[in-house]
Amino acid sequence: MSHQRSVSAAGGGAREKTYFEQQREVLIGEIAMSFEQVLANINKLNRSLEAVIAVGNEFSSVEALWSQFENVMAKEEDGDGKGSSAQAAAGAGPSGNTVDEADDDDGGARARGS
């Protein structure tokens, strides 16, 4: 019986395809088109990622400059001893008190409700 199938398949090139074979070919074609779309979308994603990386690389010199500035400012702060730049940034007055404490002439009595 298997011999008859192989003979009929080999010699029957003009034989009509079954419904299953037709549907299989249709589905295989759809799958092939879907794979092509996936490949095209992956290529588009790859190009977008490369563009994002290129933009990020453009900022590397700016980042290096800001890092250098930060290091210089940190060394300057350590060299001052008292860290007067840190006090100024925190809002401290010349006496070392914060601005709120320096303005409070009665020693904070208003804040305590006395």
Automatic annotation (TrEMBL):
GO biological process, any: cell division
Molecular functions (GO terms): microtubule plus-end binding
InterPro entries the record matches: DASH_Dad1 (IPR013958)
Record-stated family: Belongs to the DASH complex DAD1 family.
Keyword Cell division in record: yes
Record keyword Metal-binding present: no
Superkingdom, natural source: Eukaryota
Segments of this protein annotated with the region Disordered: 76-114
Biased composition (Low complexity): 83-96
Any one cellular-component term (Gene Ontology): spindle microtubule
Name of the protein: DASH complex subunit DAD1
Keywords annotated in UniProt: Cell cycle, Cell division, Centromere, Chromosome, Cytoplasm, Cytoskeleton, Kinetochore, Microtubule, Mitosis, Nucleus
Pfam families, per database record: DASH_Dad1
Organism, as annotated: Sarocladium strictum (Black bundle disease fungus)
Protein location: Chromosome, Centromere, Kinetochore; Cytoplasm, Cytoskeleton, Spindle; Nucleus
Principal localisation: nucleus
